[in-house]
What does this fold into?
Amino acid sequence: MAEASLQKKKTGFKIRLEPRLEEPPGWFPLFVSLLAIVIALILGGVVISAVGGDPIRSYQHIARASFGDSGVLSDTIVKATPILLTALACSVAFRMKLWNIGAEGQFIMGAWGASAVVLAPILAEETPRWFFLFVMALAGMLMGAFWGFIPGYLKAKFNVNEIISSLMLNYIAVAWVNFWIFGVWSEGGFQMSPKFPENAWLPRLLEYASAYPAFRGLTTHAGLLLGIAAALIIWLIVYRSRWGYEIRLIGDNPQAANYAGINIAANVIAVMMLSGALAGLGGMSEVSGVVHRLQTSPLAAGYGFTGIIVAWLAKLNPLAIIVVSVFFGALILAGREIQPSGIPKMIQGIILVSLIASDFLLRYRIRITRGEE
Amino acid sequence: MTQTTLSTPDTPLAVEMRGIVKKFPGVLANDHVDFELKRGEIHALLGENGAGKSTLMNVLAGLYRQEAGTIRVKGSPVEFHSPRDAIKTGIGMVHQHFMLVPSQTVTENVLLGLDDPRFFMRLPQYDEKVASVGERFGLKVDPRAKIWQLSVGEQQRVELLKMLYRGADVLIMDEPTAVLAPQEIEGLFDILRSMVAQGKSVIFISHKLQEVTAIADRVSVLRRGVSTASGVPSRGVARQELARLMVGREVIFILDKKPAVPGDVVLDVGSIHADNDKGLPALRGLSLNVRSGEIVGVAGVAGNGQTELSQVITGLRRCKKGEVRLGGDLVSNRNALFGIEHGMAYVPEDRNHVGSAPNLSVTDNVIMKNYRKPPVSSRTGLLDMNAAAKIATDLKQAYDIIAPNVSTPVRLLSGGNLQKVILAREISGLPSFMVAVQPTRGLDVGAIEGVHRLLLTQREAGAAVLLISEELEELLSLSDRIYVIYEGMIMGEVRVGGGESDEALIEAIGLMMTGTPIEQIRKEGVGAHG
Amino acid sequence: MDPIIILQAGVATGTVLLFATIGEILAERSGILNLGVEGMMLIGAMTAFSVTIATGNPWLGLLCAMLAAGLLSQIHAFITITLQADQVVSGLALTFVGTGISLVLGEGLSKAGTVSLLPNFSIPLLSQIPFLGPILFTKQSVLVYIGYLFTPLTWYYINHTRPGLNLRSVGEYPSAADSLGINVFRLRYFYVFVGGMLAGLAGATISLAVAPGWFSELTTAGQGWIAVGLVIFAQWDPVRAMFGSYAFGALRRLILDIQGPTVLLGFDNPFYYNPYWGFFLQMLPYAFTVIVLVIGSREAIRKRLGAPAALGNPYIRGERGK
It folds into this structure.
């Protein structure tokens, strides 16, 4: 038992760790997660003050810059949308203990696929908007799924570690997009493509400002609806469908799944493709809802990596991911103005660290007893 | 409580444990247990599974620390913080699961954890030293061989060698015969006797009465963490008395088994060949069949192809030659799903790692085989979780599964209850054929009875049951016929209840388990009683 | 496009991967998968560079880099060994933390100027050997020479010494090691620390020798991940890791050099005339990592060997029912 390694001898008191023999109460995991975030923010504050910053003001700034009024709240949601989709992508794969950390690359390839519809061009500029967007979303999901298929296939066929293969594909995706925007689709030698026609833009709230004045200047776009719809569908798949049951069974115990007659290799490929498609949809939503052109730096901004943390923080629950993405959207939005610029990334990392550390409390119970030892 | 203390003041006891208490969360494994070991004796520690024998000995071997109680070795009090401390005072334990690193050589395993050589591992000179220690005690094994290349019996010898090389005076053997064939057991007993003759003392953990009376000088008995007998001379005590001390009731349950009414052949295994995980041949032309309404046993020492046999039958392993037919349909080299859809049930030997998903709920675990069909699954591919929960609740009640509710993750269930979940799932599919591999391993007596009853019910309902087990008593009390497997081949088949005495059957099975084909046994007249 | 120069530079750049890969091999041999190599390398590169700027002493920078990365690795050790959490997620978290901290502390460092680098020198006599002399022993960084010594020593240490035996046992069958009094927890902490220090050394090798300077995340550009992949290709063997690392180093140099000449293999060089074709060259190290992974994984399947048996599993003492 772990107690042997963790027993601390103190005068009169003994700290013992015991494995939980029954499920902790329902509120407990949430409490532990919140505790982890609070501890992470404190730790982040320590680092910020260590480099000469003021943690209180940094956090105040984050809160004000992301939830202060409807304008910044809308910006927060814009930032949350790609995170929502990449986090969903990670959550389905992680549910099967398939460590797809290539959501970043799948996101970028999705953006490229959606852009290709405009830039190749696959559809003419005057194509009806709904059809344009539909094809772009499809192309984005297909490219993302393809980028997820590669590590999935290599895993299923040759047992290649998907962590590294999917990560390597992130770098390849960036180089691939760079090739197109530096060369083929470059606009006048700049490292970006021409701006998309407005038919290829996802609808934004500000378009309806004449009907609802409150929407003036709000950039929240329909990608949010795609994300929420995807979250609901993923919830249904994971918890209420045959396929989801297979995913959960493989994730918990692949040997048992094999024993139950489930084809694991086929599921590895299928889930990686689903995961890639979700990330790819995220890429489409970002390029069509925010950037409006193909360009590397705003797309390869680490949404895929943030998605990993968000998925984990939400305990892989698709509905919880919606809430957690907003929190991280705020962090990233405000982070753009915080100096030094690495702070949001560092805080994300610290949150993940304290989160997995705190999971220990879900498995073990800490008992402090008066002991003579 | 029987307390016999025969120590004389001038020869201090090799080991003296007093009032040992060891708790695990939710379990009091040892409740003020006393234990004494004299020099030069073989002392059996008897008890059922879960009685706390291994726990007590793990305390003595320094792996666990007791909450209360004292240990004296050769008269002086000791306090162990690690197994290393125990070994230093001359106490060595051979665990039930061997503590050997498979990828390393015998010598490397023997030298692990020692101070000599201090840094540079110049193995050849130590190979010689290890071999010479082995010779002294009659433990023949090649010091340069890698562990994974050795048979189970050889690995056990390496374990003993490891302890003797460290100069252990007290050897604790945890269920050493569980992995051995009857004839190999004799060999082990010879080794133990020669060790005792050279001044060593042996603690022999077992739950098998006949072994205990055959090898031990004295016996101590544990029941549910409490000592019920301490150091009784094994010669003077009746087996029934020991059984009572061990189980806590006079009558051992006798299965009420109706005569078999075998029907058509349901499972037909025709000379199959298959490899094991290492790519070495595990099954070599094995054939057997099972008819409806009978339980057919497969006896054999662990590692002779039993696991692979069950996997080939259930479609989880490819066979290279031969075929398996279920009710006429070819099932080998298809996939597990085909068998499941054609009425095959499978109780795997590893209930934690193969038969269940530990973090999923009871409900999720009981629908593992029928989630593809209504009422659990709808035509759209969605699951009706209410229907699933109802099935789980019904099974929980029918099979008396003890769990807070059906959404409890099964990792929180006891071994016996987990096995009930698996059996409930497999039986509720109304199988025409069932493979059960070691279905009672590690369960306590009450749970074993329950499992046995369920298997007999299956037989009476007309199902064909293939029972693969290492427990001869279990096979003899349940089976109608028994095949004996050795190195992936069937050595022969015996009929149970055909007039032969159990002793004669055990003798014949034992010979086959060590590689003597039945024809030879018949010719030489060993099994001529029947 | 001189093969000698490419190989010479390959050995130099490959030394980065060499240290990181061997560090990860040691950690994984003890049973702990640490995916945080990239983060630890960044911490190492940043620390080495900033300490060297502040003190002018690159050796001090090197030492601090190793200590800083080693300390960072202990977060992973605590989470996975003591708290028994999932090693994959914890390793990812470590990469985030390492990257984040190095970005925060390295803010402005890229403009801080140049530093005194670790010495480069040729080895007398050995540098005269035809072909190998100019590649291996001419004007290489002292760290490259350290790499030459380090690889065989590590190999010998793992396979032929008592601590090496202990290390292998802890990674293959921890309860066996524990039953003989080997402290599994302590050894795992130790080798995660060593792995961290070597990742720090790898980072310092970049910023103080191979590509001096601090360029935030681009300093390592995924080499930490390539190192993790190389471990699998190397089948946890330091000697194979050395060849893999140098090959990757040579590839990096080749990619740079191939874009220079106007004529390539008798044709107009497309990478010269259309520089954006160079992005395909940039993909190569990553694509090769995937290929190398496939090779390593197939070999593991064929030979039915592979990772240390206990890799990725927390050791829980006296686990019941196992």
